[in-house]
Amino acid sequence: MSREVISRYESKYLVTEGMVEAIREYLRGICSPDRHAGPDGRYRVNNLYFDTPDLRFYHDTRFKQFTRFKPRVRFYGAQPEDWLWLELKHKVKNVTWKVRRRVDVSELPRLFDNPRWHMERRAVVSLHEGFEDAVTRFGASPILQVRYVREPWVSDIDDYGRVTFDRCLACRPIAGPDSMVAGEPFVPFDDPVSAGLDANRSPVVLEIKTDVQVPAWVNGLVRCFGLQRTGFSKYCNGLERACSEMLASGRVSAVAPRPVTRGAEAGTVRSRMGQWAAGLVARL
Question: Which of 38, 57, 195, 268 has CA 20 to 30 A from 255's CA?
Answer without folding.
Answer: 268
